[in-house]
Amino acid sequence: MANEVQVFNFEQMNVRTVEIDDEVWFVAVDVAKALEIKNVSDALKRLDDDERGRFNLGRQGETNVISEAGLYRFIGGSRKKEAKQFMRWVNHEVLPSIRKTGGYQAQLALRLPENNAEMVQVIQNVNKETNRRIDEVETTVDELKDRFGLPASQAKSLEQARKRHIVTLLGGFESNAYQHLSGKTFRQIGGDFKDYFEVPRYDALPLSKFDEGMSYIKAWQLPTNLALQVRDLNLQTELEV
């Protein structure tokens, strides 16, 4: 019957199960005790949201429960040598007994691995799924980084590269052109940079475009009219000398 607690015995230890929405769930603390898992909270945190839940036992209050998939994760995290025996017990006694009552749909049962080959296959599948989820998290992190722009250190690197490049283009800090045209030149490269990348500020550049932004600054050249002004001002300095 759905939501009815059934108790099974493994090596003199009770393991309670409950059927929720046609799926078998196990009381987490019972499984942890049978598998000698000391920290139940940590074990639960390692499960996905759909592998753990809460169930009201009535007078005993609410307790943590785990799905069959969560049960396997618990078994995989146990150092007890009898973990394999526990796995066989679940497959050959617990699940068949629940199915026999008619309350559990056999097609929804997860058959746990019973030998090394099956265990390796399941571990490979779990690793594949874990890697997929890691990729999703990394993609989300990259999207968030792009959304919030450059970290302060990289924004500063862009500004320093811009300054070095402008100093070179104008002939150095002491040049006549730098003294008279540095402000205009900084405004010019700033405007060009923002127009090209469609950002309001240097630090608003998406992190994924940092290298492209650095290349843009290093490749930027003075517009023709400004370049001629720089040449003339620096020639005046040479003539004065």
Automatic annotation (TrEMBL):
Ranges in a coiled coil: 120-147
Alphabetic keyword roster: Coiled coil
Listed InterPro entries: BRO_N_domain, ORF6C_dom
Annotated Bro-N domain residues: 2-102
Keyword Repressor in annotation: no
Presence of keyword NADP: no
PANTHER family registered for this protein in UniProt: BRO FAMILY PROTEIN, DNA-BINDING PROTEIN-RELATED-RELATED
Protein name according to UniProt: Bro-N domain-containing protein
Organism (species): Weissella paramesenteroides
